[in-house]
Amino acid sequence: MSDDVERLRRWEGAGGTWQILGRSPTDLTLALLTCDAGEEVDRLHSTDPALRDYVGGRQRSDDDQPATE
Questions:
Q1: Inter-residue contact 27 to 49 (CB < 8 Å)
Q2: 37-68, pLDDT tens digit by residue?
Q3: What DSSP string describes 4-67?
Q4: What is the pTM of this model?
């Protein structure tokens, strides 16, 4: 598993949520949000294809979940 996917999964596992801020064929920028108020506390910018696969077509973490590996 890639470092960026692992980072996002740890964030989700801790109860955090995320939202896509920007998407291109090669880049993703996600806002990492608190679980309670949805405030942005960090951003994750990545060119990792594994992260794009993990996120899929979702715009937010509460959209339909990706298939498990």
A1: no
A2: 889 999 999 999 999 999 999 999 988 765 45
A3: HHHHHHHHHHTT-EEEEEEE-SS-EEEEEE-TTT--EEEEEEE--HHHHHHHTT-SBTTSSPPP
A4: 0.86
Given the structure tokens 């949000």, which residue do they identify?
A: 33
Sign of the C-alpha dihedral computed for residues 47, 18, 10 and 54 taken in this order: negative
Give the whole-angstrom CA distance, residue 1 versus residue 59: 21
How buried is 12 (Cβ within 10 angstroms: 0-12 exposed, 13-18 middle, 19+ buried)?
Answer: middle
Predicted pLDDT of residue 66: 53
Please state the domain extents for the chain.
Answer: 3-55
Token reading at 65: 């979940």
Percentage of the chain exceeding pLDDT 90? 80
Q: What is the pLDDT of residue 37?
A: 86
